[in-house]
Amino acid sequence: MTFETVHDLETPSVLIDLDLMEANIVTMQSRCDALGIAFRPHIKTHKIPDIARRQLEAGATGIACQKVSEAEVFAEAGFDDIQIPYNIVGARKTRRLAALASSAKVTVTVDSQAVIDGIAAAAQEVGSTIHMMVELVSLGQRTGTTPEAALALAKRIGATDNLRFAGLMIYPSDAAIRPRLLETLALLEAAGIAVEVVSGGGSGAISDMHLLPELTEMRVGTCVFWDWNSVSAGYVGFDKCAMRVRASVVSANEPGRVILDSGSKSIQSETIEGQFGYMAEYPAARLYKVNEEHGYVDFSAYDSLPSVGEIAHIIPVHTCVVANLHNQLYGVRGDSIEVIWDVAARGLVW
Amino acid sequence: MTFETVHDLETPSVLIDLDLMEANIVTMQSRCDALGIAFRPHIKTHKIPDIARRQLEAGATGIACQKVSEAEVFAEAGFDDIQIPYNIVGARKTRRLAALASSAKVTVTVDSQAVIDGIAAAAQEVGSTIHMMVELVSLGQRTGTTPEAALALAKRIGATDNLRFAGLMIYPSDAAIRPRLLETLALLEAAGIAVEVVSGGGSGAISDMHLLPELTEMRVGTCVFWDWNSVSAGYVGFDKCAMRVRASVVSANEPGRVILDSGSKSIQSETIEGQFGYMAEYPAARLYKVNEEHGYVDFSAYDSLPSVGEIAHIIPVHTCVVANLHNQLYGVRGDSIEVIWDVAARGLVW
Q1: Which CATH superfamily is domain A6-12+230-342 in?
Q2: B142:A67 CB<8 A
Q3: Which of A120, A160, A343, B295 is buried most deeply by CB count within 10 Å?
């Protein structure tokens, strides 16, 4: 089956506006260039080697993946500088990581001795070298550790065969982290430990990059597409959102309510103010509920309902989880389909 | 890579307890048998032909799928009585539906003339016959139509070449729908229109089946695995939940908080009382937040935290959306892996 224009596509389909995506890539790279820091796109947002390649061509320094399986797909596609800002845990997983490090530069992050030891054992067994950053705990209250513990972990990494201390990682790298970052850098400097990379990340932290001059690189995924989360947080307007889910009206029997063929298996279940997506053509409509294959839209703000078969476009709440649900994304320019991408690293849970 | 026991599996992995699944299959079939109605498993929950085959072997009458692409996968696997309780809209999709109806008995549901006309055109072009049920609107306030409109649609189906009126569909088939159902049946009888099937559905409606003696069949998906939604609604206990997500602790640096390697790309984002999954080994722990690859668990109810690398099992909020996120499910008996299933119809958005 061939598709020449978006009108040939069945629904739900995920469209990527290439003009917007290309502009988003340039904008993010330019911001990092202006600050003199490297941009390292996080591919979890698209999971598509061709898009990452376009990001590298625009000047990006390498990629970040969130799991070993994603890294394997991108290494296979020729990427040779791969960061996994994650605590990789588990004997088989660390062994695959170590194998990957035989053919590509692989950098991971850690926040505990246990994670270091697991990865070290695998790297020693395989005979590869794994670069390792220590994660500082941030306002995100997720993973990461304290300055004192970071120093201890850095020393341990430096003293371990087949590991190489690569620097510090922060997520999200809000300006509020700076005192902790400076404290850690001072501890490392006093111990004579060189810090090659200070890696920041997070869409929300883009606006803080200039407030953290210690950053040497920035990892962000969402900025390639943006989404309603980004708009809601004030990072960009809807006019920068490159991903839209093309949906069809499948039922319009009730006053003020329309049902779309896009639900939690197409646009996921994350919400903003109780809404599951932003209706591009109908900004006053409310996508207030989803089942797996149904989206419920409140059209009471409008005098008339769209008809069964009418196409509507949804700007998703969160692009990264939407790409992960689909086998293909469609790169479009106007109504033309210019490229059909397989979401190569989707659904890889390990 | 071969896996003999669950201990060989990396995380996150989705385990299906075969003893529990087999018992769940028997229980649902027995309930329907006792009421003299057919059971038609909805495969959206597992998307795996082998599991549907086990359901048919236990006595099920055929399957339900939620989209044409799922139906195509199951037809390919040899299933020849496939219901799609959905308004199929779109020229390419209806053409594929009609093609499918050339080799299998295909039944769809409709709630408007527009949907009937689209499917009829495709069936007439292809030369196949499509069975068509009319959906009655229920308390679910989703798709469906009124008794009067149902009569008009049934007449239209009966008068259209290549379509065959098959009966009525309800979702969910709560007892409260009965007056509307009886009214519709009376209208159809008065018009001399035979009703072959009255198809009920929905996990919550299982307990109402005996209150709707007009039902000739029941479609349910979740009852093969059950989940926290089902437990929360009082349908079953956790001891009947056959799906568990095997997860690893990847960070345990803060008092009272542990981070798992399972987030919204592994267990989805649906919640019950603000929790994203039920921790099987730690019922007093609260999985209070997810990012894509991180699950945040509040362990403040416990004196000590599990360690990095420790395995924990999550009973998901909603099994159907979890199966859809994974490439494989692992059928286990005790610690042994008895079968590895490809989730054959996952990620098929059309």
Answers
A1: D-serine dehydratase-like domain (2.40.37.20)
A2: no
A3: B295
Chain A stretch 308-337, residues whose beta carbon is closer than 8 A to a beta carbon of chain B: 308-309, 320-321, 324-327
Predicted pLDDT at A269: 96
A-contacting residues of B 111-170, CB under 8 Å? Answer: 111-112, 114-115, 118, 137, 141-145, 149
Q: Which two tokens stand for residue B213?
A: 């003696």
Q: Which residues contact A332 (CB under 8 A, 6 or more apart)?
A: A6, A15, A16, A17, A18, A338
Nearest CB to B142; choose among A259, A307, A349: A259
The single-letter DSSP state of residue B159 is T
Distance CA B89, CA B67 (A): 11
How far is it, in rounded angstroms, from Cα A278 to Cα A240? 14
Q: What span, in angstroms and rounded, lies between the C-alpha atoms of B167 and B85?
A: 12
**Selection from A342, A344, A237, A251 nearest residue A297 by Cα:** A251
- Contact between chains at B308 and A87 (C-beta distance less than 8 A): yes
Nearest to A137 among B1, B253, B307 (CB): B253
Q: pLDDT-derived band of residue B347, with 50, 70 and 90 as boundaries?
A: confident
Token couple for B169 = 């569909």
Residue A266 has its nearest CB partner, among B261, B269, B349, at B349
pLDDT at A350: 66
Secondary element (H or E) of residue B83: strand B81-84
What is the interface pTM, i.e. ipTM, of the complex? 0.96
User: Residues in chain B, how many?
Assistant: 350
**In this structure, are strands B197-201 and B217-220 parallel, antiparallel, or unpaired?**
parallel
Q: Is residue A243 classed exposed, middle or buried when 0-12, 13-18 and 19+ CB atoms within 10 A define those classes? A: buried
Pairing mode, strands A105-110 and A81-84 = parallel
* CATH architecture type of domain B20-224: Alpha-Beta Barrel (3.20)
The SS3 call for residue B147 is: helix
Whether the CB-CB separation of B289 and B264 falls below 8 Å is answered with no
DSSP code for B176: G
Q: What is the mean pLDDT of each run of 10 residues along chain A (350 residues)?
A: 84 97 98 98 98 98 97 98 98 97 98 98 98 92 96 98 98 96 98 98 94 98 98 97 98 96 97 97 98 97 96 98 95 97 84
Class of domain A19-223: alpha beta
d(CA B213, CA B205): 13
Contact status, residue A65 vs residue A345, Cβ threshold 8 Å: yes
Rounded Cα–Cα distance for residues B67 and B290 (Å): 29
DSSP-derived 3-state class of residue B138: coil
